[in-house]
Amino acid sequence: MGVPGPVPGSPGRPEDPVMGREEVDRALGRLGAEYEAIETSLLALQDHAGRRLLEGAALTGITKDRWAATEQSVTVLWAHFDAYTETLTTARALRARRRWPSPDDLAELTELLRGSRVTVSGAAVGGATAGSGGPARLSEQFSLEELVERMNGLYAAALDVIVAADAVWSALPARIDLLAAELRRTLSLARSVGVRPGEHPAGDDLERITYELTQLRAQVVSDPLAFWVPDADRSAAPGGGRPDTARYDRAARALEDIRREIEAVLDVRQDAERRLMRLRDVLSRADRTLTEARQARGEVLAKIAASEVPAVSGPPTALHEQLGTAAEYRRHAQWHRLSPLLDSLEQRAEDELHRARESLTAVTAPLAVRAELRGRLDAYKAKAARLGLAEDPLPAERYDVARRMLWSAPCDLRAAEQAVLRYQQAVAEALLPQQPDGGPADGPQGEA
Asked: How many C-beta atoms lie closer than 10 Å to residue 183's C-beta?
């Protein structure tokens, strides 16, 4: 809103010089432009979105008190503007009477334009000076310049309240809603990993943040001016300042810290699930190996005679019970108990699998010996056939004896091994050069 330029002398005093015609016309032109600017500003103030929100809101606290005073100031502002309009209209009508105004006209115009001829009722004056503690006045006289200054002050104060409230409402509720949406996602993630109020500190913190955001949003909506920090420079334009986001920022930081903590818990949960799956797999392989060892032991006892076959232990019952305990810890999100238990179970499960494999190897050793003897017997038979000894009576006889022992049940491994050795010896002797008397030549015996 514009302010008229300085005028010589003091308004309304008799010694002020009378304005000339051209000076009057310039003053009326300036005041007309100022009138349009004031009217535009007042209409913009009337239609301001922040003003409409303040009128329709259920206000509390500082905002309620300041908006009540502002509404009264706006009413006074319009009353001042009406008085300004009336005086300007009178001056324009007086000037329009004659092309060349008379000295009396110029004197009256000077008094209207520079003197204290604008009368404002006591109600309007009292509203404009509310809180001053002075006595109530029936009316007060102003010059146009003084009236514009008064309107500028009322307008700036009203606009400051409206702009501040609108700025807070434009900034904080939307940010609080976004943070509340992030809070809901974090709560859902927290429940998925077992972080709940009363069971985990982060669950209690989330409950406190939920309450804080609910209270903060309600307070911001009902008392926005409580969250406005004005500029230190009070001479700045109306609305100079910023929304106070301290409480919002604290809640956002706390939520971010909790989100990181829950993500860490989620990583622990995922790692625990992988470890549990791997542990179940190791124990399952140990059980299958022990089952195979027990079946192999029965086969060995049925097929191998005079052989010591070690006993096979049962499944690791204690390990399976502790695996069930680990699953309970996982189900109830007791990660501080689950991790050390998994550390112990993993090593013991690996040891159990190693023991089961050793048991299977020990149990099946006689079968492996029999298989090795069978392979050796067949290898020597192939060698004898390649050297033309397949029809030799002694090797053939000893081969038959060894084969019956190795392919009969139960098999006496010690006797079968001796029979294989005798067959090898017979093949070796058959390959030695013969003496004239028909016996083998002297010399070392062995393979040809």
From this structure: 21
